[in-house]
Amino acid sequence: MITPHPAAARRVMLVDDHPMWIDALSEDLSAEGFDVVAVAHDGAECLRRARATRPDVLVMDLKIPEPDGATCTQILTTDFPALGVLVISASGEREDVLRAAKAGARGYLVKSASRAELVDGVRRTAEGDAVFTPGLAGLVLGEFRRMATRSEQAGVHTGPRLTGREIEVLRRVAQGMAYREIAEELVVSHRTVQNHVQNVLRKLQLHNRVELTLYALENGVIRPGENQGDSADR
C-alpha cells in the first residue's frame, strides 16, 4: 500500500468519459487517503464541477466530449493557477503530449501505467512535481529546447525580481528535479522549496513547472541539454 505524503492527501477531481475507469481510479485513490470531490464525463461538466468544487488536483483524460481535455486544462489553469492537472490518457502521441503540456498540464501518464504509478502520479502532482511517463519528459523538454533556439539571448536574464535562492530553485526545477530532491540538495524543507517555486511563479506571472522550464531555457537559466532528461519521471 502506498502511503501518500500528508501534504498530498488533497482534493481530487477525475475527468473521463469511461465511468468504469473513473470508478476504479476513484477507489484506488480513496484507499490511499485522497478525497475525490467530483467526477465529470465531458468538457462542459468538467468546467462546471471544477469551478464549483475547486479541487487541488484534476486528473484529466484528453479525449472527452467537447471541450476536450486540453481545452479544459487551458481554461482551468488560467482561472486557477494553483490547480495541478495530471493528464492520464490512452495516447502517447507526441502531438497530444505537447498540446497538454502547453495547455498547462503538470504531468502526463499513459493509461497502461500500473495502479501504483497512477496513484503515485496523483500524489506527486499534489506535491507540485512534474510527472511524466518515461520518455515523455524528454520529449516535452526537447520541444522546449527547440522553441528556445528561436531566441539568441545570452546569459541569465532573470531581472532583479528573483533572489539568488529563487534562481537556484528555478534552475533545479527546470532540470527536472523533484521538490524532495531540491530540498535535500539545498538542505531546506520541502515546504520551503514549494514556497520558493510559488514566489517565482507569481513574480514571473507563470502558472506551472512546464512554463518555468520554458522560461529558464529561453532566458539562459539553464542551457539546452543541461536538463536531466527523464529525471522528472523519478
Q: What's a quick, concise take on this entry?
A:
With 234 residues, the protein is an alpha/beta fold. It folds into 2 domains: 6-133, 3-Layer(aba) Sandwich (Rossmann fold), CATH 3.40.50; 142-225, 3-Layer(aba) Sandwich (Rossmann fold). Helix content is 49%, strand content 12%.
What brief labels describe this structure?
234 residues, alpha/beta, Rossmann fold, 2 domains, six-stranded parallel β-sheet, 10 helices, 12% strand, disordered N terminus, disordered C terminus
CATH level 1 class label of the largest domain: Alpha Beta
Number of DSSP helical runs:
10
Mean pLDDT: 79
What's the end-to-end separation, in Å? 19 Å
| Class based on secondary structure composition and strand pairing | alpha/beta
Adjacency order of strands in the biggest sheet: 2-1-3-4-5-6
What are the low-pLDDT stretches, counting only 5+ consecutive residues below 50? Answer: 1-9, 150-160, 228-234
User: Which architecture of the largest domain would the CATH scheme give at its second level?
Assistant: 3-Layer(aba) Sandwich
Following the backbone from N to C, one meets helices and strands in this order, namely EHEHEHEHEHEHHHHH
Strand % is: 5-15%
Number of strands: 6
Q: Structurally, how many domains make up the residues? A: 2
Helix content: 40-55%
Within the CATH hierarchy, at the fold level, what is the topology of the largest domain? Rossmann fold
Largest sheet features:
6 strands, parallel
Radius of gyration: 17 Å
CATH homologous superfamily caption of the largest domain: Response regulator
Estimate the global geometry from the Cα principal axes.
Answer: globular
